[in-house]
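=== RUN LOG ===
request id: a7f3
mode: sequence -> structure
chains: 1
length: 287
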Amino acid sequence: MGRRNIEANPLTDLCGDYLVRIEDALKRELDSYSWSEFHAPLRYACDGGKRIRPLILVLSAEAIKGKKANGDAYLAASAIELLHTESIIHDDIIDEEHTRRGKPSFHVKYGYNSSILTADFVLGVILFIGSKLKNPRVLNELSNAATRMSEGEMMEIRLNKAPAITEDDYIKVLDYKTASLFETSAKIGAILGEGTEEQIHAMTTFGHMLGIAYQIHDDLIDWNDEDKLFNMLVKQNDRSKDFIDRMEKLYQSYAAKAKDELLKVAPANNEVIRHLELMTDLASVQI
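=== RESULT ===
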């Protein structure tokens, strides 16, 4: 799990079996490219991730369908994790990050040229997974997520050069760059779980709200150590405690809205819904 996960994480305890199956499915997809020069770099890039996005997908499918997720859900979950991995490779180059998950970041270990090519290769793997799913709607959602994440990265690059930014600017970047993949994970899960349009919409909104809450919470933890948009807002507000408190309340508000959406999907006594509810308690489970 991740660098800030507490030793006894309730989410890990409850979802350990899911995480093992996600890991197995991802390894299976990667090992189908064991002949390729990209195989070892891909294994390195994927190693150590928290798998929170694929977990959302699998749980969303089960919450709606009411039974264990099938192979398609785990296949789609692999595509989601690979899309996240591809974005990390690019992000670390753009942000000049030298470490990731407690080890050298991808471009530090393999170089810039190999990083660009590996990220391209990953997109090819994702496209192939999408073709195996034989569900145009799922492939469309993966495409939309990739597009929005790129738009979010471009927005962030532009805003980093701006003399000042607003909170709305910051939230819009989170919406595109981070929340889009949370949203897509939940939506694809709901689609594969054969949910009604109302259930799919509610699960999509859950993912969207959770993604924004997650990133604000993450930025609150790291703002003193990272030079990103959130730091610009903190400095513009004279590093005031009032601003930090307001942002703390904002992430809690988004997390609460995410939790409310789940009750539109299935009853609160649904065990899988309770797992998803636990993800909204970011201070406790530290996803």
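=== NOTES ===
The beta strands are 99-100, 103-104.
The domain at 10-285 is CATH 1.10.600.10 (Farnesyl Diphosphate Synthase).
=== END ===
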